[in-house]
Amino acid sequence: MIARTISFVALLLPSLAFAETEFWLTNDRININLGAFITEFDGEGRATSDAGRGTKIDLEDDLGLEESVSVARLDTSFRISSRHSVQFSYIDLSREGDNVTERPLLINDTLYPVGSDLDVDFDYRVYKLAYTYSIWQTPDYDLGFTTGLHIFEVGLTIKTDLAKTEDSDETAPFPMFGLRGSWLLDPDVFFRTSIEYFAISEGDVEGSLLDILVSIEYKFSKRWGFGIGYNHLDLEAENSDSQDELDYEYDGILLYGKLVY
Known about the structure:
Layout: H1 2-12, E1 30-46, E2 57-58, E3 68-79, E4 84-92, E5 95-100, E6 105-107, E7 110-112, E8 117-137, E9 141-160, E10 165-186, E11 189-202, E12 205-219, E13 224-239, E14 245-260
Antiparallel strand pairs: 1-2, 1-3, 1-14, 3-4, 4-8, 5-8, 6-7, 8-9, 9-10, 10-11, 11-12, 12-13, 13-14
């Protein structure tokens, strides 16, 4: 579906030739959104030992991680010109948990037998940097191609009643491509959306990333406003050689204040 949409818009490019616009976009140069992100998770993964063995674990059921958290989230956008803009986002979705194991868990090189009392810290931070080129603009909407990076910092620390500690940290950059749009529903009301996607299948590595965001914003003054949005992310990665894998999904409601320059 996403690939067909991108292909359709790409076919229109030769016929699209718009002059630099001077309508509401000129008052939409810098957007700073800061608010609360209320999120529910569903995650599975496997971290194998040097011998290629490991237990596939449910992050919430096996490790006792919180199924829902409320965290701060920052989203910014800077419009260089009416056609060119850059975006940056930051979210810290780290969680804690504790659980008594009901089955043996082999994670990396450590075996946690049945009855182990686990104290878990799961660090998960997301940095997003994107560039958008607007290909279609009217007095009511702005639609553009976007490309950039999703950078995930993932760390897992497990402490047990036997004073053993297991630490693992990874940083994974995912390139992404997609569409980003803004619609003017009313002089002070905007509908904004973005769809970002990436898939890779190279050698032993396979993975995909889908990130969908939709929001409604209301500006109650020239500089200030607020918004409500919904965000869905689905990340899958697997190494068939090492048998490491991660399947991570979250859905969240975003409530934020807005500053506009």
